[in-house]
Write a structure and sequence with these properties.
- The complex is a heterodimer of chains A (445) and B (300).
- Chain A is globular and about 65 Å long.
- Chain A has 2 domains: 168 residues, Periplasmic binding protein-like II (D-Maltodextrin-Binding Protein, domain 2, 3-Layer(aba) Sandwich), CATH 3.40.190.10; 206 residues, Periplasmic binding protein-like II (D-Maltodextrin-Binding Protein, domain 2, 3-Layer(aba) Sandwich), CATH 3.40.190.10.
- Chain A is of the alpha/beta class and 445 residues long.
- Chain A has 23 helices and 14 strands.
- Chain B has 14 helices and 2 strands.
- Chain B has a two-stranded antiparallel ribbon with strand order 1-2.
- Chain B has one domain: MetI-like (MetI-like fold), CATH 1.10.3720.
- Chain B has 300 residues and is mainly alpha-helical.
- The chains are: A alpha/beta (445), B mainly alpha (300).
- Chains A and B meet through helix 1, helix 4, helix 5, helix 14 and helix 22 of A and helix 6, helix 12 and helix 13 of B.
- Chain A: This is Extracellular solute-binding protein.
- Chain A: It comes from Streptomyces endophyticus.
- Chain A: InterPro entries: Bact_solute-bd_prot1, SBP.
Chain lengths: 445, 300
């Protein structure tokens, strides 16, 4: 990779790194957040906190357009780095100073907002405005439901986790992307003999490890296994599918399936994608956002069709349907229950008429992402990224089970324990039974 | 002579008004004691940062004490403290003595040594993280594959890498302290020693080191208590990983509070951190002898 390309990739990395830097100072920031940056009450206009990178420009444009057309219902928009945002918004919401629009992922964090009475119930609004509800792909809308009521409405792109591979490397090896787990294991020695790492993995970032566990458990035991875990059923982690998945992961580590020093390699700065793009690794399991990242940072990977993609392989004898997906069904907007009447009016108006307007949807598509709305197949087919977009769209449309990334779905305390213990599995510091015991302990509390 | 006159003078001559300490005291009260009190209070509660704060008695404390992660964090902190001390003290002492010399080239080198002082911890962490990347880091840049180790991903190695980066960041600061200390030693002591025929090593051991006693105590206290506060650098560099290999107590506290949203347990960890810090600082003061203001220059 020449230095210019690497530079572009670095910039991509820098955003994520800057995110971690910012969250380091979050402790200090939260203090000020309570005191001064509480745009919640009084100002009249609705407030919205978005995330840097990814959809930033598209969102900004969508809100700017809305504000121009509705000067009396304007929305003031601020952006934050991912990790810093997660800490900041939680503290702000806890102090009753959160934004009108709370950006989220659904899952455990959303549930904690609901439990604390901070998120507004949007079910009556959806009942009054069925056209809002009906525009979404159903597998995606479900994820904003807590206890039968909708508290979060999808606001962007579907991001299932996929298996990406380097087409040139596979052509040289005369191999096909694996469709089953045994095919995957058989590819490992083949690539190793060529001096190529079978899989890149940003192990230092910890969360990419999780993708392996999520898919393996789903493919082996079906979505019920994790549904029980999320429901905090005692001993849910002891399901044999979890143990088998962890064993398979350690077998893959032992076989040398991951790039040397993968535990030093960070996905936050795109090192895993860079390894595959440069042909040092053959494959990587990563989120749907990887394509959007490539489009902005490594357009030649798309132009030259270097990188291909497919679904995660099936496991022989497994119960999970190969159509099941894991990842981020979408991001979501929740509305603060503390919003004033005028803020609420502006917010609901935007959700209905501003978000997923023709132009907004088109801009999402142009950025290399799949909007989570129905009836856009033709527009996706007209896109220059149609191969990827229609692939993801069909997967998302067809699937019955789109499991949210576990670190988002679980409570924050469980997610933290999960990431640390899974890291220990990849490092082979603990065995599957120790993992199961430690994770069961987080349920019994 | 000084011993008897000092207390007398204090009682009879009114010193500067005690009110001069007021601004500092107010700041200390508002930003140290009050938050500390709140943290002690929170450690007896259960709070996820969002919902209501509920009283939980010793619940958080029990969880924290029983959690193997706490023991691990204390152990990792102790290791970082000891290793940092062992690396930083000799190097900064020698560099301090060296840069205290008035030669031109030494002044020039001193400027270079002090450069890391200008950089923020976060910047240092990001730079080292990039340099240590096994695939695209320093080793790939200069083409020395032997350097492509699993620096930050090997549970046995990462701690030492962290200690090394901390040393890189803080040695300049302690060098500066030692440089100042050495420059305060009267030249007459060395002249006398030279007349007595003492060589350089002898002068260093018998004059420089004893004269630097209080500088060493100051620097050691800063180092030891400082290593209880290492957070930003490690948070960005390793995030506590791999596994929990570099999850120091302050980092563990932050992650428990702001990532796992368990404010009760995080507050208990905070109280432990304060207690350990105070104990270490007091111990070092004790080691330095009680009468800290005693002169070392009798007879000069």
């Amino acid at each position: 990779m020449d230095s210019r390309r690497l530079g572009r990739l670095r910039r991509l990395r820098t955003t994520r790194t800057a995110a971690s830097v910012l969250s380091a100072t979050a402790l200090a920031l939260t203090l000020t957040a309570c005191g001064s940056a509480g745009p919640g009450a009084g100002t009249g206009s609705a407030t919205m906190w978005g995330l840097n990178g990814g959809d930033q420009d598209v969102l900004k444009h969508s809100v700017d357009t809305w504000n121009k057309a509705h000067p009396d219902e304007d929305i003031s928009l601020d952006f934050f780095a991912n990790d810093a945002y997660k800490t900041k918004v939680r503290t702000a919401v806890g102090a009753g100073k959160g934004p009108t629009f709370i950006y989220g992922w659904g899952g455990g964090v959303l549930k904690s907002y609901v439990d604390a009475g901070q998120a507004a119930d949007l079910s009556p609004y959806l009942a009054r405005n069925p056209e809002v509800r009906d525009r979404y792909l159903p597998s995606v809308l479900d994820n904003g439901v807590v206890g039968g009521k909708t508290y979060a409405i999808p606001n962007g792109r579907a991001q299932p986790i996929l298996l990406y591979f380097n087409r040139d490397v596979f052509a040289r090896a005369g191999a096909e992307p694996p469709r089953t787990w045994s095919q995957l294991m058989a590819l490992v020695p083949k690539f190793k003999k060529m001096g190529i790492a079978p899989f890149a993995l940003g192990g230092q970032s910890k969360w990419p490890d999780l993708m392996w566990l999520e898919y393996l458990v789903d493919r082996i035991g079906g979505p019920r296994v994790f549904a029980d875990i999320v429901a905090n059923k005692p001993g849910a982690w002891s399901h044999p599918a979890v143990t088998e998945a962890l064993t398979k992961i350690q077998q893959l580590v032992d076989a040398g399936g991951f790039a040397d020093s993968f535990t030093s390699s960070a996905a936050d700065n795109g090192a895993d994608l860079a390894l595959v793009h440069t042909g040092k690794a053959a494959m990587v399991v990563q989120g749907g956002w990887l394509y959007q990242n490539m489009k902005s940072a490594l357009p030649e990977a798309i132009e030259n069709r270097t990188i291909g993609w497919t679904t995660f392989p099936t496991v022989e004898g497994g119960k999970g349907s190969p159509a099941n997906l894991v990842g981020n069904p979408s991001n979501y907007w929740s509305l603060s229950s503390k919003a004033t009447a005028s803020q609420r009016k502006a917010a609901l108006g935007y959700l209905k008429n501003g978000m997923f307007s023709e132009a907004h949807t088109q801009e999402l598509i142009d950025s290399g992402a799949v909007p989570v709305v129905k009836g856009i197949k033709k527009r996706l087919e007209a896109s220059q990224d149609k191969d990827f977009l229609t692939f993801v769209y069909e997967l998302t449309q067809r699937t019955r089970n789109f499991t949210l990334s576990w670190d988002q779905a679980l409570s924050p305390a469980q997610a933290d324990a999960l990431l640390v213990n899974l890291d220990q599995i990849f490092l082979k510091k603990i065995d599957p039974h120790q993992f199961t015991a430690r994770m069961n302990a987080t349920i019994e509390e | 002579m000084a011993d008897t006159s000092t207390p007398l003078r204090r009682t009879h001559e009114p010193g500067p008004s005690g009110w001069l300490a007021a601004p500092a005291l107010v700041m200390f009260l508002a930003f140290a004691l009050v938050p500390l009190g709140i943290v002690v209070f929170l450690s007896f509660t259960r709070w996820d940062g969002l919902g209501p704060i509920t009283f939980d008695g010793l619940g958080s404390w029990r969880r924290v004490v029983a959690d193997p992660a706490t023991t691990n964090a204390l152990w990792v902190t102790a290791k970082v403290m000891v290793f940092s001390y062992l690396v930083q003290t000799p190097v900064s002492l020698l560099l301090g003595v060296f840069t205290a010399g008035r030669q031109r080239y030494r002044a020039l080198l001193a400027v270079l040594y002090f450069l890391p002082l200008l950089l923020s911890s976060a910047a240092i962490a990001i730079a080292f993280k990039a340099l240590l990347d096994p695939s695209f880091g320093f080793s790939a840049g200069v083409g020395i594959p032997a350097l492509a180790r699993n620096w930050l991903g090997d549970a046995d190695l990462a701690l030492f890498v962290v200690v090394a980066v901390i040393a890189w960041q803080f040695i300049p600061f302690h060098t500066l302290i030692y440089q100042g200390g050495v420059r305060q030693i009267p030249a007459s002591l060395y002249e006398a020693a030279q007349i007595d025929g003492a060589g350089r090593v002898r002068q260093f051991l018998n004059i420089t080191l004893p004269q630097l006693k209080y500088t060493i105590i100051t620097s050691s206290t800063l180092m030891a208590v400082g290593s209880l506060a290492y957070f930003d650098l490690i948070f960005v560099l390793t995030g506590g990983g791999p596994g929990e290999a570099t999850r120091l107590l302050p980092l563990h506290m932050y992650l428990t509070g702001f990532q796992a949203s368990d404010m009760g347990a995080a507050s208990a960890l905070g109280v432990i951190l304060v207690a350990v810090g105070l104990a270490v600082a007091l111990l070092l003061q004790r080691l330095g002898g009680r009468d800290r203001s005693a002169s070392q220059l009798e007879g000069v």
